[in-house]
Amino acid sequence: MPKDQGIGASSKRREDVRFLTGTGNYTDDINLVNQTYAHFLRSDVAHGTINSIDASAAEAMEGVVKVFTAKDFEGVGGIPCGWQVTDREGNPMQEPKHPILAEGKVRHVGDPIAVVIAESPELARDAAEAVEVDITELPAVIDMKAACAEGATKVHDDLTSNLCYDWGFVEENRDAVDQAIKNAAHVTTLELTNNRLVANPMEPRVAVGDYNRANDEHTLYTTSQNPHVIRLLMGAFVLGIPEHKLRVVAPDVGGGFGTKIFHYAEEAFVTFAAKALNRPVKWTCSRSEAFISDAHGRDHVTKIELALDADNKFTAIRTETYANMGAYLSTFAPSVPTWLHGTLMAGNYTTPLIYVNVKAVFTNTVPVDAYRGAGRPEATFQLERVVDKAARELGMDPAELRRLNFIKPDQFPYETPVAVAYDTGNYDATLDKALELTDYAGFDTRAAESKANGKMRGFGIAHYIEACGIAPSNLVGQLGARAGLYESATVRVNATGSIAVMTGSHSHGQGHETTFAQVVADMIGIDESQVDIVHGDTSKTPMGMGTYGSRSIAVGGSAMVRAAEKVINKAKKIAAHLMEAADADIELKDGQFSVAGTDKSVAWGDVCLAAYVPHNYPLEEIEPGLEETAFYDPANFTYPSGAYFCEVEVDPGTGKIDILGFTAADDFGNVINPMIVEGQVHGGLAQGLGQAMLENCVYDDNGQLLSGSYMDYAMPRAHDLPNFTVDHSCQTPCTHNPLGVKGCGEAGAIGSPPALVNAVIDALHRGGYPVEHIDMPLSPSRVWNAMQSVK
Amino acid sequence: MQLTDSRDIQADRATVWAALLSPEVLQTCVPGCKEMSGTPEEGFEATVVQKVGPVKATFKGAVSFSEMVEGQALTLTGDGKGGAAGFAKGGAKVNLEDLPDGGTRLTYEVEAKVGGKLAQLGSRIIDGFAKKMADQFFENFQNAVEGPAEDSDAAEGAEPEAAEKKGWFKKVLGA
């Protein structure tokens, strides 16, 4: 019987009542008295020198309050980067200044030059047209390899080159890897691109700045995944506002996918301008503006070599990757192609020697940062593509080559050669589960049917491992993170027994209000409706690091469990007093405290009331009240894994792909709410398959964004996707967090692109087109052209 | 994008050359041109209203001549700022050569570049748009020099006086 409450129950998402009835409270729903509106005038050239800005005509227009330019920000800090990567020589990365508004030069289409503040958004937009900006256009650097060439135009004149860093990992293994590749019985090589993406959350970014002169307090309402991080970065590094005078609120947020992690210039701007004008300032991003101002994702160009011995065991992996940083370093950009990518190159396999080289490059494009999966999809894609190619070259079944090289269940905990240690996993189990769910054995019959219908059918396999629950603070500190990565929670019990949990995690669609309540309700044995989850406001929640990297339940959930345990321990003492028993004999079950071995009991609500009305209470031993806070710093990452199978049909006449079936057999450890987990996997698969088939961000040679609207940037739609088969019955619980959970938010986006591409390549081979690789997105024209190239 | 095309104009080279340098002709010929002022030597200031796919904008910009070889060749360059719509830049290299029948063959190579919202929203249609603009410009130019082909069968065929029909530019010149 499935449970209808608590851990393991598919409780309905309580937040959907407001989301589905139009009663959510998003940042754009916040309107303050005497509010003004900001419009950002952005560069329409990719690279240029600003000769002059004349805002006098705009400022003279009716309804215009003020026009801000860089000169208004003299003495104000730039936008900081939150992670420092050290290069192969041990030197820190090159870190350019990132001003709030362009100073002297513009460096990408969309770089903000000036901001018009007016009484309405329309007046601000109109007045922006009257701002005269004289820019001398300079040659733009767009292609990463060209940007690294001798004599290339520099994005930042004060840096020595366009190379942010040249990173080697693990540098000490370099020679051994070279040697292993030289001595290998077989080496499979693949060059590929991980296409640049635009995150496109349903809600574009919005920021509202407010300032209260009476108490010198600033408030920023913003579409953020981590309000405390924004408060810290903006308060301490940009505007110099002490944290007790700065409140950051991220109310309902309509999707983030990574791009709302980062601290953006617009947030600092509205906060600054609200004080300068002594009026609230609101900025609402349009969809077109989002394309040129939200941080983009992916954009790696990689060469990978996989060495195998005569028994088809993997002996070494060597990769060389160019990773696009864009024009400035976004908050976590340097960490994505390095510590979130290189450390995952072992995948599910026992490869003993790995060397990853990453060159991060500045170009005249929008900054690139974490996007659903962040580094792990890039690692998984190249690894699973090269393993598939190796299987074909060796004439092996791709599932069997993987199985032969899997880390086996008895090898855990497993130390990889790329610094991480997997605590648990069972890769054979997820492979077997996926095989069972897809009728792998019946594929040949189905392929014959497709052939009879003039179509080519293919089957693609991908395995993934990911590192979630970022992360042990002492570890990431060594790796260059400029923040800790714990999480916090306060469990506040009210006098009548209901509970408010203040979490440092942030929900922007994930369903924390439901899942987190299930955990606390389950621990105490009360109804879920008695627990509310509060998040997204620095004035209400303890210092928290926010939500990204599938960390909420693993880190935020663990903090909440620790705080709830403290509450329960204290409540047991109160119960012991009320029942005149020893603390150690008190048991809590189904909301009742009882004395072991007796029929004495007292209800949860009565204990809570005693804590707040302490008439009969051990005041000399414990304080009144029932509220506890915990901070949880994880001991390790968590390592979800899974087997993803994709079955496609390709039309040889047009190159069009139809996904006929997609199976995801995941190991997420323990699962709190299976329905929500399934929803997360569905969303991840849609985004991963969107990347693999449809989405692509394209710049021309001059740095103009050509795919800047939904006319040219193809988002996945329901009809592009099959009915997914999703299973998470293979569970190897995490060994180091109290819930045994691993995280499920990004898995779908990580494992699905290689599964789809492998399936299409398989279909083409079976159809007589020996195509080795097609870069994503696999649009009909790319598939068809690849077919013609081998005809 | 780049494109090359040519037109045969029923007028001698000197007439075609003079027409190319005329501000009035230029204003008539630039599609969507609302205002133009200036001289061939100093360049022209122009205001042009155009719709590129979903983006309609008023472009303010400059048109200038360069690489002028009297009676033979010149390069026409335009550079317009469309405010929120972004910018458009374009150029046409024009070459003139005599035709055996006394007419002139005008060959043009057009290059166009857009930026900002025009590129963001209109990239897929920009090539077609530039070709249409160029074709329209030289069509207008031909009409200005020759006069409109009121009856094209007649113009090309039997009646020799049809070829004598003057465009307004020729009338102005009294040629």
Automatic annotation (TrEMBL), chain A:
The keyword Oxidoreductase applies. Keywords: Molybdenum, Oxidoreductase. SUPFAM superfamilies: CO dehydrogenase molybdoprotein N-domain-like (SSF54665), Molybdenum cofactor-binding domain (SSF56003). GO terms for molecular function: iron ion binding; oxidoreductase activity. Pfam families: Ald_Xan_dh_C, MoCoBD_1, MoCoBD_2. It is an enzyme of class 1 (oxidoreductase). Residues 21-139 form the Aldehyde oxidase/xanthine dehydrogenase a/b hammerhead domain. Its EC number is 1.2.99.2. The keyword NAD does not apply. This is Carbon monoxide dehydrogenase large chain. It comes from Thalassovita autumnalis.
From TrEMBL, chain B:
CDD domains: CoxG. It comes from Thalassovita autumnalis. It comes from the Bacteria. This is Carbon monoxide dehydrogenase subunit G (CoxG). Pfam families: COXG (PF06240). InterPro entries: CO_DH_gsu, START-like_dom_sf. Gene3D superfamilies: 3.30.530.20.
